[in-house]
């Protein structure tokens, strides 16, 4: 029900997508800095020739269960549920999967972050501002919050040839068919391999059409069928399937409609529509809290910076030097369907949303498929 508080779920950094990456690093003899997943360590110890991590954007546990039966291939091979990271969004979660680091360590905390260097909020995947205009003639995030990937660490360890296959990475593909073909092609080569493979569905369909849409259903069913076919064709290969986060339908509000909130801010909030950071003008903290809680106190948990750090919401490790500067004075995390948009386009067009603290957004599957071990 819109506006109703949902079941709150915090990330468990000992049972999460973070631990998938660290199990992989451990298995390939590369340096790892966090706990691993025992269930994954066990199958990785069988030393498969190929290890493939397939990440499907927003294919959370609740989203799979809605469209796939208990006898479906993916649900049959699900070992357990694990959590995403905070916030449960592609920018933070994919970077954790790609780096083996907690969000506080890699500092790719959300879709949009405020960089003093350009005096603007930056959509860090695409290097634009809130209105999608370029912010600089260089890639701001790559310059200030770069990180070493799991693929690079495994290649440096020399124990396998590692590849990153996605529409955005070194091994670039443009269609789902190309993704599946690339995985097959690499696995059929002689050397030992690690493959990270990412596809941006069903997330894109859910954002545009909602989580119950035919488009979302078709994508999840298609992914299920294609992975089943792939599993039959590959030999001596371990396939791990997971998601970066889950997805829910949103109830969007436009932050600029709440002048009593925006008047207290140094600049418009960034991060995510369901996890907002607020940088408050000096002397206006009480006014900000009163205004925010008046409008959204039932929909968001408002954390002070001190509470964010004490609760280790973004993880607990050696924090990136930029981390604390990105989280502002307050973080507001949604626990209902509410989303706080900063521009008209996302306000009007986003039907599906994520990045809040609900169990639907935070819960993702650990799916393990062992293919024809010789």
UniProtKB/TrEMBL annotation:
Keyword Thylakoid: no
Segments forming a coiled coil: 213-240
Domain of life assignment: Bacteria
Record keywords: Coiled coil
One Pfam family cited in the UniProt record for this chain: Phosphodiest
Stated name of the protein: Alkaline phosphatase family protein
Species this protein is from: Inconstantimicrobium porci
Lineage: Bacteria, Bacillati, Bacillota, Clostridia, Eubacteriales
